[in-house]
Protein backbone atom coordinates (compact mmCIF):
# COMPACT_ATOMS: atom_id res chain seq x y z
CA UNK A 1 0.00 0.00 0.00
CA UNK A 2 1.18 3.53 -0.65
CA UNK A 3 0.96 6.25 1.96
CA UNK A 4 -1.11 9.19 0.73
CA UNK A 5 1.79 11.56 1.49
CA UNK A 6 4.29 9.91 -0.88
CA UNK A 7 4.88 11.31 -4.35
CA UNK A 8 5.04 8.22 -6.62
CA UNK A 9 7.37 10.06 -9.03
CA UNK A 10 10.12 10.31 -6.40
CA UNK A 11 10.04 6.75 -5.04
CA UNK A 12 13.17 4.63 -5.30
CA UNK A 13 12.43 0.90 -4.94
CA UNK A 14 14.67 -1.43 -2.92
CA UNK A 15 14.48 -5.22 -2.94
CA UNK A 16 13.77 -6.41 0.60
CA UNK A 17 13.55 -10.21 0.22
CA UNK A 18 11.57 -13.04 -1.31
CA UNK A 19 7.88 -13.17 -0.38
CA UNK A 20 8.67 -16.50 1.35
CA UNK A 21 10.93 -14.68 3.85
CA UNK A 22 7.89 -13.11 5.52
CA UNK A 23 5.38 -14.94 7.70
CA UNK A 24 1.74 -15.00 6.67
CA UNK A 25 -0.24 -12.68 8.93
CA UNK A 26 2.91 -11.43 10.61
CA UNK A 27 5.94 -9.26 10.18
CA UNK A 28 9.70 -9.33 9.76
CA UNK A 29 12.39 -6.68 9.79
CA UNK A 30 14.64 -5.80 6.86
CA UNK A 31 17.46 -3.29 6.77
CA UNK A 32 17.77 -0.91 3.84
CA UNK A 33 20.75 1.36 4.25
CA UNK A 34 20.61 2.51 7.85
CA UNK A 35 16.83 2.04 8.14
CA UNK A 36 15.19 -0.87 9.89
CA UNK A 37 11.85 -1.46 8.21
CA UNK A 38 9.06 -3.70 9.44
CA UNK A 39 7.26 -5.52 6.61
CA UNK A 40 3.87 -7.15 7.14
CA UNK A 41 1.91 -9.61 5.04
CA UNK A 42 -1.85 -9.78 5.62
CA UNK A 43 -2.38 -13.21 4.03
CA UNK A 44 -6.19 -13.13 4.15
CA UNK A 45 -6.36 -10.02 2.00
CA UNK A 46 -3.06 -10.43 0.14
CA UNK A 47 -2.00 -6.93 1.23
CA UNK A 48 1.53 -5.90 2.18
CA UNK A 49 2.57 -2.98 4.38
CA UNK A 50 5.84 -1.49 5.58
CA UNK A 51 6.73 0.96 8.34
CA UNK A 52 9.63 1.99 10.51
CA UNK A 53 10.64 -0.76 12.91
CA UNK A 54 11.19 1.63 15.82
CA UNK A 55 8.27 2.20 18.17
CA UNK A 56 8.24 5.95 18.84
CA UNK A 57 6.77 5.44 22.31
CA UNK A 58 9.84 3.89 23.96
CA UNK A 59 12.25 4.07 20.98
CA UNK A 60 12.70 0.29 20.70
CA UNK A 61 13.18 -1.60 17.40
CA UNK A 62 10.23 -3.98 17.84
CA UNK A 63 7.32 -3.16 15.53
CA UNK A 64 8.14 -6.06 13.16
CA UNK A 65 7.19 -8.36 16.04
CA UNK A 66 3.97 -6.45 16.65
CA UNK A 67 0.44 -7.76 16.52
CA UNK A 68 -1.35 -6.96 13.28
CA UNK A 69 -5.04 -6.60 12.58
CA UNK A 70 -7.50 -3.90 11.71
CA UNK A 71 -9.45 -1.21 13.48
CA UNK A 72 -12.68 -0.34 11.70
CA UNK A 73 -11.17 -1.61 8.44
CA UNK A 74 -7.85 0.25 8.95
CA UNK A 75 -4.82 -2.11 8.88
CA UNK A 76 -2.80 -1.64 12.06
CA UNK A 77 0.18 -2.84 14.06
CA UNK A 78 0.36 -2.82 17.85
CA UNK A 79 3.69 -2.56 19.63
CA UNK A 80 4.30 -5.95 21.32
CA UNK A 81 5.63 -4.27 24.48
CA UNK A 82 3.46 -1.24 25.04
CA UNK A 83 0.37 -1.98 22.91
CA UNK A 84 0.48 1.43 21.20
CA UNK A 85 -1.38 0.99 17.90
CA UNK A 86 -0.52 2.58 14.54
CA UNK A 87 -2.20 2.69 11.12
CA UNK A 88 -0.14 0.86 8.52
CA UNK A 89 -1.59 3.13 5.82
CA UNK A 90 -1.00 6.57 7.32
CA UNK A 91 1.28 5.97 10.34
CA UNK A 92 -1.26 7.70 12.58
CA UNK A 93 -1.31 6.69 16.24
CA UNK A 94 -4.72 5.06 16.69
CA UNK A 95 -4.59 5.56 20.47
CA UNK A 96 -4.82 9.33 20.01
CA UNK A 97 -1.23 10.11 21.04
CA UNK A 98 0.76 12.74 19.14
CA UNK A 99 3.57 10.52 17.84
CA UNK A 100 3.24 8.52 14.64
CA UNK A 101 5.32 6.15 12.49
CA UNK A 102 6.68 6.40 8.97
CA UNK A 103 5.01 4.13 6.44
CA UNK A 104 6.42 3.02 3.09
CA UNK A 105 4.86 1.70 -0.11
CA UNK A 106 5.31 -1.99 -0.89
CA UNK A 107 5.37 -3.64 -4.30
CA UNK A 108 5.50 -7.36 -5.15
CA UNK A 109 7.21 -8.33 -8.40
CA UNK A 110 8.34 -11.83 -9.45
CA UNK A 111 7.87 -13.17 -5.89
CA UNK A 112 10.12 -10.42 -4.48
CA UNK A 113 9.09 -7.74 -1.99
CA UNK A 114 10.19 -4.18 -2.79
CA UNK A 115 10.04 -1.20 -0.44
CA UNK A 116 9.73 2.33 -1.76
CA UNK A 117 11.76 5.07 -0.11
Question: Mind explaining what this structure looks like?
Answer:
The protein has a single domain, classed as 3-layer Sandwich (Rieske Iron-sulfur Protein), CATH 2.102.10.10. The protein is an all-beta fold and 117 residues long. The strands form four sheets. A four-stranded antiparallel β-sheet has the order 2-3-4-10, with no helix packed on it. It contains no helices and twelve strands. It is globular. The chain has strands at residues 13-18, 26-32, 35-42, 47-52, 54-55, 60-61, 67-71, 74-78, 85-87, 103-104, 106-109, 112-116. This is Nitrite reductase small subunit NirD. One of its GO terms (biological process) is nitrate assimilation. GO terms for molecular function: 2 iron, 2 sulfur cluster binding; metal ion binding; nitrite reductase [NAD(P)H] activity. Keywords: 2Fe-2S, Heme, Iron, Iron-sulfur, Metal-binding, Nitrate assimilation, Oxidoreductase.
Features:
about 120 residues, iron-sulfur, about 0% helix, 12 strands, mainly beta
Element-by-element helix/strand order: EEEEEEEEEEEE
The amount of helix comes to under 10%
- Unreliable stretches (pLDDT < 50, length at least 5) are none
Largest sheet data? 4 strands, antiparallel
Strand order of the largest sheet: 2-3-4-10
Note the gap between the termini: 13 Å
> Could you say what the CATH architecture is?
3-layer Sandwich
The name of the CATH superfamily reads Rieske [2Fe-2S] iron-sulphur domain
Report the strand count: 12
CATH class: Mainly Beta
What amount of the residues lies in strands? over 45%
Report the structural category.
mainly beta
Q: Which of globular, elongated, flat, extended, rod-shaped describes the shape?
A: globular
Mean pLDDT: 92
Cα Rg: 13 Å
Overall tally of domains: 1
Tally of helical runs:
0
What is the CATH fold-level name? Rieske Iron-sulfur Protein
Amino acid sequence: MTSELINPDTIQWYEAASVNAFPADGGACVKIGERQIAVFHFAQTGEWYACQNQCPHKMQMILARGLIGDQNGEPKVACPYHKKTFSLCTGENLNGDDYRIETYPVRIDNEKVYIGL
